[in-house]
Design goal:
about 210 residues, alpha/beta, globular, binds zinc ion
Length: about 210
């Protein structure tokens, strides 16, 4: 089945979650001429390594999303305090509703509802509320998933995976995290590919599917 999407929103609690969970899919959808929008809710100022500028994650997300092919005008950065997104639940919901009122999204990608990170689950629950009538896929961040139902796959080619790895390299502030390493990203894409007889894939959890 070849589904065409026109406007896709990627919801990222922190500026790298979208690329980590769905960087290959973003590259795939852009190639199919979909418009991809990226909304990040925290630039994690309080978690920036010592010696780096406070706003480094803002700079990095701009570079990473640009490298994937997302237009600058389609990147929305909000500056809520890392690990405290639950304190701003209503504001986040209102931000999402504002986006929804401006753009008719036909697909939303956000962290899985089985993600145990406090910021991730907050943003996903608000995503579920804001996009009650839209197809939603939950992306995989295995280091935060207690369980993950691999109920949807996006088949990826080498070029999509390379785009993902290239985008992640812009996150110099996150260097040292094992999940950002190219060998990990490639291995997971390989494992998900094996599940569907493809070279590479990204797996998603179907949260709501509207046909
Ligand atoms: Zn995160």
């Amino acid at each position: 089945m070849n589904l065409q999407f026109a406007d896709i929103l990627v919801i990222a609690p922190h500026t790298d979650d979208g690329e980590l969970g769905a960087g290959g899919a973003i590259s795939y959808f852009l190639e199919k001429k979909a418009k991809v929008y990226y909304a990040a809710f925290s630039t994690a100022k309080d978690s920036v390594p010592k010696g780096m500028p406070e706003d480094i994650l803002k700079t990095e997300v701009r570079k990473a999303t640009k490298s994937l092919g997302i237009e600058e005008k389609n990147l929305f950065i909000y500056d809520y305090q890392v690990r405290k997104l639950n304190h701003f639940r209503q504001e986040i919901l209102e931000n999402l509703i504002t986006l929804r009122s401006k753009i008719h999204f036909d697909l939303v990608l956000m962290p899985s509802l089985n993600d145990i990170h406090q910021d991730h689950i907050t943003v996903s629950q608000e995503g579920l509320r804001a996009f009650k009538t839209t197809s939603i896929l939950g992306y995989e961040l295995i280091w935060n998933n207690l369980t993950f139902n691999t109920t949807c796959f996006i088949r990826l080619e080498e070029r999509h995976l390379e785009n993902k790895i290239k985008a992640l390299k812009y996150y110099k502030s996150q260097k040292g995290k094992d999940y950002i390493l190219p060998e990990f990203v490639r291995s997971l894409a390989k494992a998900r590919g094996v599940q569907i007889g493809a070279q590479y894939a990204e797996a998603f959890e179907v949260i709501r599917w509207v046909i």
